[in-house]
Design brief:
- The chain has about 170 residues and is mostly beta strands.
- It is built from one helix and eleven strands; from the N terminus they run βββββαββββββ.
- The strands form three sheets. The protein has a six-stranded antiparallel beta sheet, with no helix packed on it. The protein has a three-stranded antiparallel beta sheet with strand order 8-7-10, with no helix packed on it. A two-stranded antiparallel sheet has the order 1-2.
- A hairpin with a 5-residue loop joins strand 1 and strand 2.
Length: about 170
């Protein structure tokens, strides 16, 4: 079961004072049909900048892996251990992500993909391997990777789920 993520959203009241608008489980959780133990929780999505104004929650729109071209998305991804993950049809998974063109079927790991974005990946819980075409590195809680439009994949070689917070910025 994918761990729920608490989301707190601020805004303004009628007098312009800062208030808490929401506090509860993030409502936008995407689980690919082929890998239901993978959870992608969109916390907030900005479709254009500037965006510091009250407005609707954009996370209710259909899930897409990449952020809007002139915006960003913040999400928590829960990666189950590789031995519990179904890598059988990654092309279909990336199609469900709205990013079929991002998937690299010829790469050394089935999860390799490339997006037109600058991403900040922050390990929140557990550990995960960041894989590049050449090389890999183990990331643990608190580590941050700056991913700049490179072909990459994630591999959880441990026995417990890993949670990674991603901030994807359209590039």
């Amino acid at each position: 079961m994918v761990k729920p993520v608490r989301r707190i959203v601020t805004g303004h009241d009628a007098e312009g004072r800062s208030i808490f608008l929401e506090d509860g489980p993030a409502p936008s959780v995407f689980r690919p049909s082929h890998s239901p133990n993978v959870g992608l929780t969109n916390l907030w999505l900005v479709d254009a900048l500037p965006a510091n104004a009250d407005g609707p929650d954009q996370t209710s729109q259909p899930f897409r892996l990449e952020p809007p071209a002139r915006g960003n998305v913040v999400r928590i991804v829960e990666f189950p251990p590789d031995k519990e993950r179904n890598y059988g049809n990654q092309a279909e998974v990336f199609r469900q992500y709205g990013a079929a063109q991002a998937h690299d079927a010829k790469a050394r790991h089935p999860g390799f993909h490339k997006t037109q974005s600058v991403d900040y990946a922050i390990v929140v819980e557990g550990e995960i391997w960041a894989l590049m075409d050449v090389g890999e590195t183990l990331m643990k809680a608190g580590d941050v990777l700056i991913q700049r439009g490179t072909n990459h994949a994630w591999s959880n070689r441990s026995d417990t789920p890993a949670q990674v917070c991603f901030v994807l910025n359209g590039a």
